Amino acid sequence: MYLHSKNTLLLNETLLDTYTNLPYKLYTADSIREIDRHAIEDLGIDGFDLMNKAARFSFHALAKEWPETQNLVVLCGSGNNAGDGYIIAALAKKRGWNVQILFVSPPERLQGDALSAYQLCLTGKVTCEEFSTSTFRSCCNKENTVIVDALLGTGLNSNVQGLYADAILEANKQACPILSVDIPSGLSADTGQALGIAIQADLTATFIGLKLGLFTGSGRNYAGKILFSDLELNSSLFTHIKPVARRLDLKRLLSQLAPRARDAHKGTCGHAMIIGGNLGYGGAIILAATACARMGAGLTTVITQEVHRTALLSAIPEVMIHTSQNMQTIEQLLSQADVIVIGPGLGKSAWSEKMLLAALTSQKPLVIDADALNLLAERLTCTIDMDVFKKAKHVLTP
Question: Which of 16, 18, 174, 378 is the most buried (most CB within 10 A)?
Answer without folding.
Answer: 16
